[in-house]
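hi! just following up on the protien thing from before. the input was this:
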Amino acid sequence: MNGNIGEPKPAAQDAPDTRWEGIRRRLETNRTALERRFEPTADERNAILKARAAELAREAVGEAAAETWITVVEFVLAQEKYGIEPDFVRDIFPLKTLTPIPCTPPFVLGVTNLRGEILSVIDLKRFFDLPDKGLSSFTKVIVLESEAMTFGILADAVIGTRSIPQADIQPPLPTLTEVREEYLKGVTNDRIAILDAESLLSDEKIVVHEEA
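and the predicted 3d structure came back as:
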């Protein structure tokens, strides 16, 4: 009989190449898991992009806030553009009827009825000695108001509101506009004359005494 009968057989050993292949697979698995752990998901990428966009928007707002802007109501007088602060503008409406007032300066055209309110109407073209070509279908009345005074001024046309950088408004020069300096805040680079509404509303020469 074979004397080796009954003795345990030696355990089979893996070949070296097989062992290294298993190690490599485990390392590759771990590396892939680590990469997935640090790679953002689609939701995370969207959140990152939104955060970056918000930061850029804050920077843009900060830059805009550093520059002062003013808003004006832009209108036309004698083919020139003018602007006036909307804080003093109460209403804008087309001129339909006008009743002359006797014994008033030539620049006071008369009064009009605005929803039951009798309103004096001033022609700034006559007040500033600007060329006057009369009224048209585009003529509008801009109602100016302060605590002490309310009246309307004629506009050949109203363009709308616009924002202007304060840095673009230069001191008025006689060569830029015929309007007297005391009624101007300045003139923009593109020749928009910014009127001083407060000066107009407090000027005693414009006060209309309808009982005269």
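Helices lie at 16-38, 42-66, 124-127, 197-201.
Residues 42-66 form the longest helix (25 residues).
cheers
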